[in-house]
Amino acid sequence: MTEPIRIEPLRREDLRRCAELERALFPNEDPWSESAFASELDWGHFYLGAHAGELLVGYAGLSVAGAPGDMEASVHNIGVDPVWQGRGIGKALLRLLLDRADEVRAQVFLEVRTDNAAAIALYEAHGFATIGLRRRYYQPSGADAFTMVRPARVEETT
Fold first, then answer.
1. I need a surface site. Which of 23, 44, 80, 96 has the fewest CB within 10 A?
2. Catalytic residue among 123, 124, 137, 156
3. What is the domain range of residue 80?
């Protein structure tokens, strides 16, 4: 598994694999279906796929809304095949999502399971702070989630 990773816009032909990864990553929750991912693309949300050769090994999505000067983004999901975790794929996907939010100077929100220490550490390392708790956010397990936010990146003028 030393194949280089290529990150590009998510393709419709990747959606079946996205749903497969969702089931593997979130077996005790309500994983997204292929049609849920298709709906995200239909809405024009920003989705990326990480490929090793032709195999999709990770995905990530972001929505952006609002008027110029008052934009808000939301990380919908980041998932990496368990076999490919620990290689920086999730971090690379997150950075590209944040780059997109920075293009429109949007603050970025997300939810993360309170027991997902690795994801929380990743988000904190990228400027996110916990601002709230959503009890029983994940279903059907009833796991809690933190709401986290990263302020909009605004270029300083001198």
1. 44
2. 123
3. 5-150
CA distances from 25 to 3, 81, 93, 120 (A): 22, 8, 16, 16
CATH number at residue 112: 3.40.630.30
On whether the pTM is more than 0.90, the answer is yes
Domain contains 158: no
Query: From the CB of residue 156, how many other CB atoms can be counted at a distance below 10 Å?
Result: 4
Per-residue pLDDT of the chain (158 residues; tens, 9 = 90+): 568 999 999 999 999 999 999 999 998 889 999 999 999 999 999 999 999 999 999 999 999 999 988 999 999 999 999 999 999 999 999 999 999 999 999 999 999 999 999 999 999 999 999 999 999 999 999 999 999 999 998 765 44
Catalytic residue, chosen from 20, 34, 111, 137, is 111
Residue 34 annotated among the catalytic residues of the structure: no
